[in-house]
Specification:
Layout: H1 27-38, E1 58-59, E2 66-67, E3 76-82, E4 87-96, E5 99-102, H2 112-115, E6 116-120, E7 134-136, E8 138-143, E9 157-161, E10 171-172, E11 186-191, E12 207-212, H3 216-221, E13 233-236, E14 258-261, E15 264-273, E16 283-287, H4 288-299, E17 312-316, E18 322-326, E19 337-341, E20 345-351, E21 360-365, E22 370-376, E23 381-388, E24 396-401, E25 410-414, E26 420-423, E27 435-438, E28 444-448, E29 461-465, E30 470-474, E31 489-493, E32 499-504, E33 513-517, E34 523-526, E35 541-544, E36 550-553
């Protein structure tokens, strides 16, 4: 509880009628799929399915290193794919309960929903029937839209699982991280890949190896020359010796696995030379800091219809009180669907506090109680948890996502004195003690946020000043307290609107969007550009009229 409960019995909000559309094959089918794929696991992908690069020598690939346990790397995942003709194995990392970070060359062109399986929670390769891991199906897949089979540029991807796993996630680094990439920084790579240049056998047990990060100049001067792309890639390790002895490197089967510094993923295994040990060679990784702005929106993309496009909630005026959701079609919305009567509420916001990829709602009732309404997959029902009491005087309640940089969604509020507070989320609907950001927030009659408006992988907010109708961007820094947001930046003056909604990524392009309504009831969509300037939004798109009937948006 954030505040002491009221004496009167708390009345929870209605149970939504929304049922998420996620489906998955039966466990028996997933096990059969894994068994078929595991038979081919000793023959890791060598570029037959995914092009091996411009020189013909680049080949997605721990030779050397030591065995380790899953307790030391609980987020490690095994990715098996089998479609009868093309079978392969890749590594990955759990970065949220339903999200696996991996390489694009493991994802593009493959049908992971129907032909793939993910294994978590074990150090034993799942070719062993007694591996003891959790087998999960894939619901949807994303690879960087600019990934090239030819150059292996932009080699990064995210798989969304059909159901959350219990494996402890690992966070990714963010766009402003330079420390992790300083030459000589020691990084750890994990995987089940080949253990020798002379055999295709992959490791039956998880291995790790510690490698020094190299400078861009070192990587560029390596004999592959132009195949290394500065900013997009990072290479690590000592130069290979030309044979297994004296070489420590990632190799085939490690593709998609993480390179870790300071408890965060800084690289994803991408490519290296054929057989991995050619004298002078290094292993190459996708540079995660460069891609944080692309990956985070694919991790924090829970929405009502489970299609990676954010939907809109709108409640009719209190005399009616019906809550509707409008499913996004990209730049328009499908016909509204009634949820239930929410006449006893005055705040309704979308979020995903437990990061299970099912959209939750934060609801404040007229009594001042705040509830977390969340879908429970195991029961296929909604549950209500009261998270605060006595919040009737709070001027703003905001759930923009992860403000503090720990990959767990947070709750913010502006109190009656105009002080902005952060309640750091724990990922389960509970919160750490609140942290003060600053005062003076009473000047704003709208404070909204849902995602990243600036393309840096960090959560931002947009506030509207009551007296001037100026709109200000508060760019997130990934920190708590007074440093949670950078200095405000004026991005618009909007005097022609009287209602706003930051629903998230409505268009599905990975950039946070914004909605604004005129007093006459016309609703406009402002697609996000990812720029932290006055060009933060592209040209508005008219959604339709008649939206004056709604007095709550979420």
């Amino acid at each position: 509880m954030l505040m002491a409960p009221a004496n009167a019995a708390a009345v929870p909000p209605p149970k939504p009628t929304i049922k998420p559309a996620v489906t998955s094959p039966s466990q028996a089918e997933l096990e059969a799929r894994l068994e078929a794929a595991a038979k081919q696991a000793e023959e890791p992908s060598k570029g037959a399915k995914f092009s091996s690069g411009s020189s013909g020598k680049a080949d997605a690939k721990v030779i050397g290193g030591t065995e380790t346990s899953i307790s030391s790397a609980p987020w490690m995942a095994q990715l098996f794919y089998e479609d009868g003709e093309n079978s392969f194995f890749c590594g990955g990392a759990v970065i949220a309960p339903t999200k696996i970070l991996t390489a694009a060359h493991c994802v593009k062109g493959a049908d992971w929903k129907n032909k793939g399986v993910v294994v978590t929670g074990t150090e034993t390769l799942a070719t062993d029937a007694n591996h003891g891991g959790t087998i999960t199906g894939v619901w949807r897949q994303w690879n960087h839209p600019s990934y090239s089979d030819y150059t292996l540029d932009n080699d990064i991807a995210v798989l969304t699982l059909a159901y959350p796993v219990t494996a402890k996630p690992i966070n990714i680094t963010k766009s402003d991280d330079t420390t992790s990439y300083k030459p000589g920084t020691m990084a750890t790579v994990y995987g089940w890949g080949r253990t020798s240049s002379t055999s295709d056998d992959i490791s039956p047990t998880l291995k790790k190896a510690t490698l020094p990060v190299n400078s861009d100049a070192t990587c560029e001067n390596w004999q592959l020359g132009g195949e290394y792309i500065r900013n997009h890639m990072v290479c690590a390790g000592q130069p290979a010796s030309g044979q297994d002895d004296g070489t420590t490197t990632a190799c085939n089967g490690d593709s998609g696995g993480p390179l870790v510094v300071g408890g965060k993923i800084v690289g994803v295994v991408s490519w290296g030379v054929e057989n991995c040990v050619e004298e002078g060679a290094y292993s190459v990784y996708s540079k995660v800091s460069w891609y944080a702005g692309s990956v985070v929106p694919r991790v924090d993309d829970a929405n009502i219809t489970n299609d990676h496009r954010s939907d809109v909630l709108a409640r009719r005026s209190a005399s009616d009180g019906t809550l509707y959701y409008y499913a996004s079609k990209g730049t328009s919305f499908a016909g509204r669907v009634a949820v239930d009567n929410y006449s006893a509420t005055n705040v309704i916001l979308q979020t995903d506090l437990n990061r299970d990829d099912y959209e939750d709602m934060i609801i404040r009732t007229k009594s001042g109680d705040v509830w977390w309404s969340h879908y429970v997959p195991s029961t296929e029902e909604w549950a209500d948890t009261k998270i605060a009491s006595g919040w009737g005087s709070r001027k703003q309640i905001i759930v923009p996502g992860d403000v503090t940089g720990d990959a767990l969604p947070d709750l913010l509020s502006v109190d009656s004195a105009g002080v902005l507070w952060i309640y750091p989320g724990k990922g389960n609907g509970t919160f750490s003690p609140r942290v003060q950001v600053g005062s003076g927030w009473s000047q704003f009659n709208s404070v909204r946020g849902n995602g990243d408006f600036t393309g840096d992988g960090k959560t931002d907010m947009i506030a509207r000043k009551s007296s001037t109708s100026e709109m200000f961007l508060y760019k997130g820094t990934g920190k708590a307290g007074t440093g949670a947001f950078a200095a405000k930046v004026k991005v618009r003056t909007w005097s022609g609107y009287n209602a706003f909604d930051a629903a998230g990524d409505v268009t599905g392009d990975g950039k946070a969007d914004y909605l604004a309504r005129t007093p006459g009831g016309t609703l406009y969509l402002y697609p996000g550009t990812g720029k932290a300037t006055s060009e933060i939004f592209a040209t508005r798109i008219k959604i339709g009229t008649g939206w004056q009937q709604y007095n709550i948006f979420g």
